[in-house]
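re: the backbone from monday

yeah here it is again, tokenized this time
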């Protein structure tokens, strides 16, 4: 009995405490340290570098976060689906996020570019597998008629695009007038 109470208390404390937003780390972002660079100058350079390659969706100077709109194209994804084995191209998109933070007399740039694949057709094909019976009982509103096309799209994140991350960080270095390897 006491074990169940302990589990209930732990579960309730986890739910009530919530989750903190994770700080950027080198596990999930590419990193660039800019010694003797003010945060404002680093933010302006990051904004200019991102705006040259991607359309900016949101930017917040107070938090130092810049996020881009998705940029779509077609390319080989290297996945494990049948079409990938024969070299089919798939619809993919990239979204870049840059965070600018302060650190001991330096600015730090954290960059992440995610690559996502369009999987709406696969999601629709397997959505009926989740139903309780085989009879098509869902109305049009239950399926997707009550939402927009963008809301009905399914994008599966494949991986980070580390080459694009390094390119953005290199562009930031260039806009600040720094050497490539410094």
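seq for it, each position gets an aa:
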């Amino acid at each position: 009995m006491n074990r169940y109470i302990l589990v209930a208390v732990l579960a309730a404390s986890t739910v009530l405490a919530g989750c903190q937003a994770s700080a950027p780390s080198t596990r999930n972002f590419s990193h660039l340290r800019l010694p003797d660079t003010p945060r404002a100058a680093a933010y302006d350079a990051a904004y200019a570098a991102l705006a040259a390659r991607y359309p900016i969706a949101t930017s917040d100077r107070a938090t130092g976060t810049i996020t881009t709109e998705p940029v779509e194209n077609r390319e080989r994804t290297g996945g494990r689906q049948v079409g990938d084995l024969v070299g089919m191209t798939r619809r993919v998109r990239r979204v870049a996020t840059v965070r600018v933070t302060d650190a001991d007399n330096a600015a730090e740039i954290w960059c992440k570019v995610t690559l996502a694949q369009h999987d709406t057709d696969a999601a629709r094909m397997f959505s009926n597998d989740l139903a309780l019976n085989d009879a098509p009982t869902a109305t049009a509103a239950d399926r997707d008629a009550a939402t927009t096309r963008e809301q009905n799209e399914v994008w599966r994140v494949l991986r980070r695009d580390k080459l694009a991350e390094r390119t953005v960080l290199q562009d930031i270095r260039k806009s600040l007038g720094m050497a490539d390897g410094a």
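Strands lie at 30-35, 56-60, 65-68, 71-75, 90-103, 106-118, 155-160. Residues 45 and 172 are 5 Å apart (CA to CA).
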